[in-house]
Amino acid sequence: MALSKGPLKRAEKIDRATPVLQGSSCVAAIDFGTSSLSVAYTTPTDGQIKLVPLHSTYERVPNAILILKDQENQQCQVMEVGYKAQNIYGDIKKGAENYIYFERIKTLLERDTTLDRATKVSSFTGGSYYLIEVIAFILTHLKEKLLTDELKEIHKSTNFDWVITVPAIWKARARRMMREAAYMAGLTSDAPGITRFTPVGSPLPRPEEVNPEKLSLALEPEVAAIAAQHQSA
User: Fold this and answer.
1) FRET partner for 147 with CA separation of 20 to 30 A, picked from 24, 27, 54, 107?
2) In angstroms, what is the C-alpha Rg of the chain?
3) How confident is the model at residue 117 (pLDDT cuts 50, 70, 90)?
Protein backbone atom coordinates (compact mmCIF):
# COMPACT_ATOMS: atom_id res chain seq x y z
CA MET A 1 0.00 0.00 0.00
CA ALA A 2 1.42 3.34 -1.05
CA LEU A 3 1.98 5.94 1.63
CA SER A 4 0.37 9.32 1.24
CA LYS A 5 2.83 11.99 0.14
CA GLY A 6 0.81 14.79 1.64
CA PRO A 7 1.42 16.23 5.10
CA LEU A 8 0.09 14.26 8.00
CA LYS A 9 -3.18 15.65 9.21
CA ARG A 10 -3.19 16.60 12.87
CA ALA A 11 -5.83 14.98 14.99
CA GLU A 12 -8.47 17.40 16.12
CA LYS A 13 -7.91 18.55 19.66
CA ILE A 14 -10.62 17.55 22.07
CA ASP A 15 -11.64 20.46 24.25
CA ARG A 16 -11.61 19.65 27.92
CA ALA A 17 -13.25 21.71 30.57
CA THR A 18 -10.76 23.47 32.81
CA PRO A 19 -11.32 22.35 36.40
CA VAL A 20 -12.53 25.19 38.57
CA LEU A 21 -12.14 25.10 42.33
CA GLN A 22 -15.27 26.00 44.20
CA GLY A 23 -13.96 28.84 46.32
CA SER A 24 -15.51 29.87 49.62
CA SER A 25 -17.09 33.25 50.20
CA CYS A 26 -15.03 33.54 53.40
CA VAL A 27 -11.24 33.84 53.43
CA ALA A 28 -8.88 33.67 56.42
CA ALA A 29 -5.19 34.53 56.20
CA ILE A 30 -2.55 33.62 58.78
CA ASP A 31 0.74 35.49 58.67
CA PHE A 32 2.99 32.95 60.38
CA GLY A 33 6.14 35.03 60.64
CA THR A 34 9.51 34.12 62.08
CA SER A 35 9.10 36.66 64.87
CA SER A 36 5.38 37.51 64.85
CA LEU A 37 1.84 36.29 64.17
CA SER A 38 -1.33 37.88 62.83
CA VAL A 39 -4.69 36.75 61.45
CA ALA A 40 -6.99 38.54 59.01
CA TYR A 41 -10.28 37.50 57.46
CA THR A 42 -13.18 38.58 55.29
CA THR A 43 -16.78 37.36 55.14
CA PRO A 44 -19.70 38.15 52.80
CA THR A 45 -21.41 40.20 55.52
CA ASP A 46 -19.62 43.44 54.65
CA GLY A 47 -16.72 42.36 52.46
CA GLN A 48 -14.24 44.20 54.66
CA ILE A 49 -10.82 42.80 55.58
CA LYS A 50 -10.57 42.63 59.36
CA LEU A 51 -7.82 41.68 61.79
CA VAL A 52 -8.40 39.24 64.61
CA PRO A 53 -7.38 41.07 67.81
CA LEU A 54 -4.62 38.94 69.32
CA HIS A 55 -3.68 41.86 71.58
CA SER A 56 -5.49 44.95 72.83
CA THR A 57 -2.85 47.30 71.40
CA TYR A 58 -0.81 45.59 68.68
CA GLU A 59 -1.98 44.09 65.39
CA ARG A 60 0.87 41.57 65.40
CA VAL A 61 2.10 39.58 68.37
CA PRO A 62 5.36 37.68 68.95
CA ASN A 63 5.52 34.13 67.62
CA ALA A 64 5.41 32.58 71.08
CA ILE A 65 3.09 29.97 72.58
CA LEU A 66 2.46 28.74 76.13
CA ILE A 67 0.77 25.36 76.55
CA LEU A 68 -0.59 23.79 79.74
CA LYS A 69 -0.13 20.03 79.90
CA ASP A 70 -2.23 17.69 82.01
CA GLN A 71 0.27 15.19 83.40
CA GLU A 72 -2.37 12.48 83.90
CA ASN A 73 -4.06 12.24 80.51
CA GLN A 74 -1.43 14.16 78.50
CA GLN A 75 -4.09 16.50 77.11
CA CYS A 76 -2.74 19.93 76.23
CA GLN A 77 -4.41 23.32 76.25
CA VAL A 78 -2.99 26.47 74.72
CA MET A 79 -3.05 29.17 77.36
CA GLU A 80 -1.89 32.11 75.26
CA VAL A 81 0.19 33.22 72.32
CA GLY A 82 2.20 36.38 71.76
CA TYR A 83 2.85 38.95 74.49
CA LYS A 84 0.48 37.27 76.93
CA ALA A 85 2.33 33.98 76.57
CA GLN A 86 5.64 35.73 77.18
CA ASN A 87 4.33 37.52 80.27
CA ILE A 88 2.77 34.43 81.84
CA TYR A 89 5.88 32.37 81.16
CA GLY A 90 8.03 35.08 82.76
CA ASP A 91 5.89 34.94 85.92
CA ILE A 92 5.92 31.15 86.32
CA LYS A 93 7.66 30.32 89.58
CA LYS A 94 6.29 26.92 90.52
CA GLY A 95 4.94 24.01 88.53
CA ALA A 96 6.95 24.85 85.42
CA GLU A 97 6.92 21.14 84.54
CA ASN A 98 3.23 21.52 83.68
CA TYR A 99 3.95 24.13 81.00
CA ILE A 100 5.43 23.96 77.51
CA TYR A 101 6.78 27.19 76.05
CA PHE A 102 8.23 27.99 72.62
CA GLU A 103 9.39 31.08 70.76
CA ARG A 104 10.27 31.63 67.09
CA ILE A 105 10.13 27.95 66.17
CA LYS A 106 9.61 28.87 62.52
CA THR A 107 13.33 29.61 62.17
CA LEU A 108 13.98 25.87 62.37
CA LEU A 109 12.11 25.38 59.10
CA GLU A 110 14.91 27.19 57.29
CA ARG A 111 17.29 24.31 58.01
CA ASP A 112 16.09 22.49 54.94
CA THR A 113 19.10 20.18 54.69
CA THR A 114 18.07 18.21 57.78
CA LEU A 115 14.37 18.97 57.96
CA ASP A 116 11.74 16.24 57.90
CA ARG A 117 8.43 15.60 59.62
CA ALA A 118 10.25 13.95 62.53
CA THR A 119 12.34 17.05 63.30
CA LYS A 120 12.33 17.76 67.04
CA VAL A 121 12.49 21.01 68.98
CA SER A 122 13.26 21.64 72.65
CA SER A 123 10.91 23.80 74.70
CA PHE A 124 12.09 26.55 77.02
CA THR A 125 10.58 24.60 79.92
CA GLY A 126 12.36 21.34 79.07
CA GLY A 127 11.48 18.34 76.95
CA SER A 128 11.56 17.66 73.21
CA TYR A 129 8.58 17.71 70.88
CA TYR A 130 7.91 17.23 67.20
CA LEU A 131 8.24 20.59 65.47
CA ILE A 132 5.31 19.94 63.15
CA GLU A 133 2.98 19.43 66.13
CA VAL A 134 4.13 22.67 67.78
CA ILE A 135 3.20 24.52 64.59
CA ALA A 136 -0.14 22.68 64.56
CA PHE A 137 -0.89 23.85 68.11
CA ILE A 138 -0.25 27.47 67.11
CA LEU A 139 -2.47 27.16 64.03
CA THR A 140 -5.21 25.46 66.07
CA HIS A 141 -5.21 28.31 68.57
CA LEU A 142 -5.32 30.98 65.86
CA LYS A 143 -8.23 29.17 64.22
CA GLU A 144 -10.12 29.15 67.52
CA LYS A 145 -9.41 32.85 68.08
CA LEU A 146 -11.06 33.57 64.74
CA LEU A 147 -14.01 31.18 64.84
CA THR A 148 -14.88 31.29 68.55
CA ASP A 149 -13.66 34.59 69.99
CA GLU A 150 -14.07 36.82 66.94
CA LEU A 151 -16.97 35.28 65.00
CA LYS A 152 -18.80 33.68 67.96
CA GLU A 153 -19.08 30.35 66.10
CA ILE A 154 -21.27 31.84 63.36
CA HIS A 155 -18.99 30.23 60.77
CA LYS A 156 -17.31 26.84 60.63
CA SER A 157 -13.73 26.22 59.59
CA THR A 158 -14.90 24.68 56.31
CA ASN A 159 -16.68 27.93 55.41
CA PHE A 160 -13.25 29.46 54.85
CA ASP A 161 -10.49 29.25 52.31
CA TRP A 162 -7.29 29.39 54.35
CA VAL A 163 -4.07 31.14 53.33
CA ILE A 164 -0.77 30.86 55.22
CA THR A 165 2.24 33.00 54.33
CA VAL A 166 5.62 31.33 53.84
CA PRO A 167 9.06 32.70 52.89
CA ALA A 168 9.93 32.53 49.20
CA ILE A 169 13.24 30.81 50.03
CA TRP A 170 11.52 27.81 51.60
CA LYS A 171 12.08 24.52 49.83
CA ALA A 172 9.40 21.92 49.14
CA ARG A 173 9.92 20.02 52.40
CA ALA A 174 9.41 23.10 54.56
CA ARG A 175 6.24 24.00 52.67
CA ARG A 176 5.01 20.45 53.01
CA MET A 177 5.57 20.68 56.77
CA MET A 178 3.36 23.76 56.98
CA ARG A 179 0.58 22.14 54.93
CA GLU A 180 0.64 19.02 57.10
CA ALA A 181 0.56 21.12 60.28
CA ALA A 182 -2.50 22.93 58.90
CA TYR A 183 -4.28 19.60 58.40
CA MET A 184 -3.36 18.61 61.96
CA ALA A 185 -4.91 21.89 63.14
CA GLY A 186 -8.15 21.09 61.32
CA LEU A 187 -8.11 24.26 59.21
CA THR A 188 -9.77 22.61 56.22
CA SER A 189 -12.08 20.36 58.21
CA ASP A 190 -14.41 20.86 61.13
CA ALA A 191 -12.21 18.76 63.39
CA PRO A 192 -11.18 20.41 66.69
CA GLY A 193 -7.48 20.25 65.87
CA ILE A 194 -4.51 18.86 67.75
CA THR A 195 -4.93 18.32 71.52
CA ARG A 196 -1.86 16.33 72.56
CA PHE A 197 1.76 15.75 71.60
CA THR A 198 3.05 12.48 70.23
CA PRO A 199 5.85 11.22 72.50
CA VAL A 200 9.19 11.68 70.76
CA GLY A 201 10.34 8.32 69.46
CA SER A 202 6.81 7.09 68.78
CA PRO A 203 5.47 6.99 65.20
CA LEU A 204 4.13 10.38 64.19
CA PRO A 205 0.55 10.09 62.86
CA ARG A 206 -0.02 11.46 59.38
CA PRO A 207 -3.17 13.60 59.17
CA GLU A 208 -5.82 13.10 56.54
CA GLU A 209 -5.67 15.74 53.81
CA VAL A 210 -9.26 16.95 53.95
CA ASN A 211 -10.33 19.60 51.41
CA PRO A 212 -6.79 20.38 50.21
CA GLU A 213 -8.20 22.92 47.74
CA LYS A 214 -9.18 25.08 50.73
CA LEU A 215 -5.56 25.57 51.81
CA SER A 216 -3.05 27.79 50.02
CA LEU A 217 0.51 28.79 50.86
CA ALA A 218 1.32 32.34 49.76
CA LEU A 219 4.86 33.61 49.24
CA GLU A 220 5.62 36.56 51.50
CA PRO A 221 7.06 38.86 48.76
CA GLU A 222 3.99 38.33 46.58
CA VAL A 223 1.65 39.02 49.50
CA ALA A 224 3.55 42.22 50.28
CA ALA A 225 3.30 43.33 46.65
CA ILE A 226 -0.46 42.68 46.54
CA ALA A 227 -0.95 44.57 49.81
CA ALA A 228 1.01 47.56 48.50
CA GLN A 229 -1.00 47.56 45.29
CA HIS A 230 -4.26 47.37 47.24
CA GLN A 231 -3.31 50.27 49.51
CA SER A 232 -2.30 52.49 46.60
CA ALA A 233 -5.50 51.82 44.65
Assistant:
1) 107
2) 22
3) confident
